[in-house]
Design a protein that fits this description.
The protein has about 400 residues and is α/β, with parallel strands linked by helices. It is built from 14 helices and 15 strands. Helix 7 packs parallel to helix 8. Bound molecules: 4'-deoxy-4'-aminopyridoxal-5'-phosphate.
């Protein structure tokens, strides 16, 4: 009998779709295509020497630990290093708040597993991070979207959404993926206050916080929430779950990230993770600790900032130089992406066919909108390509705009 797989899958698989971005990346693998599609770091500045030396030291001195199973919460010296770094940067938290995950993407999935019942509403920005939608769709949630402007979520729209009692609010206040927009301090305070007022938890996703190229650092929501509660030098026990990752400050290939969570949430996330992968790669955790323990990552982040700052500027200048009237874009103060808006009525997904003929690619904006819309938008990444390639790619893209936009 021919097995009938299609009738066997769980109902939730109906909600799972392959990421448009991942499909697109396949199309852009042709070497002649300049892709602004993915969200990849610049490989030429991976700290290969430091990683290599750390691996050698680990195999020589700590192989019994590094090649063994580890605790689900993560390698304690690494957790402590991250707790100390958070505290140094203004969020006083302790090792018990910190959990290591196999990428932030796993953390997002674990949050879905721990918090989302079928039919729950999740409050999100629109557009928002596609990977979060992908992770949570499988838990059969619905989305409430909040209107935003260039300073972040609009408080009235947020309050309206909170009144509908979502399970949690998902926000990316620093250099958002996909738009590059950051929340102002006032808007951050408002999100923290309103979420507290309505008793709705916040998930703050912050992979890019350290990658600021201009302006002053602004406190995270987690920090503001902790300050509001007067929790200095204590276990953080507030209303926010914070996510960050080594993907953009060390390397995404090691799949290493962390969560800072209030104790009760931390223990549930840990239980959920036990069922997923027992523990995050022990070897990689020791490696990240060895690389980071004497402050190397602070130095390395300065290198990353310098390189991406230049690339961002090159992309902004090239857009200015080549783009026809009616096309606009964001001016991100950090991160990896900027967001282009075409005149109303144009469809960036359709336009992608023309762009690929010119050997240039981007991510159409529609897929970042959980309830639809944004068809005339697109995300451009500026971290991966070198300045010369960025210039050439934007010139090609602008040619597509000039020829095909209406
Ligand atoms: N959240 C956001 C906002 C991201 O941009 C990314 C990476 N593209 C992730 C989470 C996932 O990161 P990681 O590589 O740690 O899984």
């Amino acid at each position: 009998m021919q097995p009938d797989w299609s009738s066997k899958f769980a109902d939730r698989t109906q909600r799972m779709k392959g990421s448009a971005i991942r499909e697109l990346l396949k199309l852009t693998e042709r070497p002649e295509v300049i892709s602004f599609g993915g969200g990849m770091p610049a490989p030429e500045i991976f700290p290969v020497k430091e990683v290599g030396e750390a691996c050698e030291r680990i195999l020589k001195n700590y192989s019994e630990k590094a090649l063994q199973y580890g605790t689900t919460e993560g390698y304690n010296p690494l957790r402590q290093m991250l707790a100390d770094d958070a505290t140094k940067n203004g969020l006083s938290c302790q090792i018990d708040n910190v959990l290591i995950t196999s990428g932030s993407q796993q953390a997002l999935d674990l949050l879905g597993k721990v918090f989302i019942n079928p039919g729950d509403n999740i409050l999100v920005e629109s557009p928002t991070y596609l990977g979060a939608l992908q992770a949570w769709n499988a838990y059969e949630c619905n989305y409430i979207t909040v209107k935003s402007d260039k300073f972040g979520m609009l408080p009235d729209s947020l309050e309206e959404g909170l009144k509908k009692k979502p399970k949690f609010v998902y926000v990316l206040p620093n250099f958002q993926n996909p738009t590059g927009i950051s929340f102002s301090l006032e808007r951050r305070k408002k999100v923290v206050e309103l979420a507290d007022k309505y008793g709705i938890p916040i998930v703050e996703d912050d992979p890019y916080g350290k990658l600021r190229y201009e302006g002053e650092d602004i406190p995270t929501l987690t920090q503001l929430d902790s300050e509001m509660r007067g929790q200095k030098n204590a276990l953080y026990d507030g209303n926010v779950i914070y996510l960050s990752t080594f993907s953009k400050i060390l390397a995404p290939g090691i799949r290493l990230a962390w969560v800072i969570a209030p104790p009760l949430a931390a223990s549930r996330i840990t239980q959920a993770k036990q069922g997923v992968d027992l523990n995050t790669s022990t070897f990689n955790q020791l490696m990240a600790y060895e690389v980071g323990k004497d402050g190397f990552l602070d130095t390395h982040v300065k290198v990353i900032r310098k390189v991406y700052h230049e690339r961002r500027d090159v992309m902004l200048d090239a857009l200015e130089e080549h783009c026809p009237k009616g096309v606009s874009w964001t001016h991100p103060e950090g991160g990896l992406f900027l967001w282009v808006t075409l005149p109303e009525g144009n469809d960036s997904a359709e336009l992608m066919k023309e762009a690929l003929k010119e050997n240039v690619a981007y991510v159409p904006g529609g897929s970042f909108h959980p309830l639809g819309g944004g068809d005339n938008t697109m995300r451009l990444n500026f971290s991966f390509s070198n300045p010369q390639t960025i210039n050439e790619g934007i010139a090609r893209l602008a040619k597509v705009f000039r020829t095909h936009l209406h």
